[in-house]
Amino acid sequence: MSLLWFALLALAVAAERLVELLVSARHLRWAREQGGVEYGGGHYPAMVAVHAALLVGMVAEVALAGRPFLPLLGWTALAFVVASQALRWWCVRSLGSRWNTRVVVVPGLPLVERGPYRWLRHPNYLAVVAEGVALPLVHTAWLTALLFLAANSLVLAVRLRVENAVLGFAP
C-alpha cells in the first residue's frame, strides 16, 4: 500500500470520526433535553488528542521511517479495522440516542442490554482498542500502534472508572 493510499485511509477514518462527533452532538442535545448529566468531562480533551495523534502519527511514521506495506500484516490489520468499525456502529445503533462520545446519563433510563451489550459492558472500547492498534499496522507503523495503546490505556482507565461509577457497576 502506498503512502498516498494510507494517507487516504487516515482521512477516511478522520471523516468517519467527524460523523461520529455530529451524531454525538445531536445525541447530547437530546440527552440534555431529557435531563441528562455529563460526568468526567475532564478527560475528554485528552481522549480527542490521543485519537487525533493516532491518525497523524501513523502517517508521519510511515513517511518518516519508511515503513513498508507488508501484505499479510496489512490486509489482516485492515480486516480488523473494518470489523472494529462494524462493532462501533453496532454499538451506536444499539444505544440509539443514548450513544455519545461523552459520558452522559439520562436519569431513569435502564441500562441497554441489546446488541453487543448483551455480552460486554463496554463493547465500544473493544472496537476503539482494536482499531487503534490495527489501523497503524495496515502500513507497519508499529511504533504508533504501541504509543496509541499506551496513551489510550491511560485515558480509557479514567473513562472506565467514570462510566462504571455512574452506571452503578462494581469497581
Show the helix and strand layout.
Elements: H1 3-33, E1 37-39, H2 44-65, H3 71-95, E2 103-105, H4 123-137, H5 142-167
Antiparallel strand pairs: 1-2
Give a verbal description of the structure.
The chain starts with a helix and ends with a helix. The chain has helices at 3-33, 44-65, 71-95, 123-137, 142-167; strands at residues 37-39, 103-105. It has a single domain (3-167), classed as Four Helix Bundle (Hemerythrin (Met), subunit A) (Up-down Bundle), CATH 1.20.120.1630. It is mainly alpha-helical and 171 residues long. The chain is 70% helix and 4% strand. The chain has a two-stranded antiparallel sheet. Helix 3 (71-95) packs antiparallel against helix 4 and helix 4 (123-137) packs antiparallel against helix 5. The chain is elongated.
Hey, roughly how much beta strand do the residues contain?
Answer: under 5%
Under the CATH scheme, which class? Answer: Mainly Alpha
How much helicity do the residues have? 55-70%
Separation of termini? 44 Å
Strand sequence of the main sheet, in spatial order? 1-2
Per DSSP E runs of 2 or more residues, the count of β-strands stands at 2
Number of helices: 5
Total domain modules: 1
Question: What overall geometry do the principal axes of the alpha carbons give?
Answer: elongated
Query: Which blocks of ≥5 consecutive residues have pLDDT under 50?
Result: none
- Biggest sheet, in brief? 2 strands, antiparallel
Radius of gyration: 17 Å
Structural class: mainly alpha
Can you name the CATH architecture? Up-down Bundle
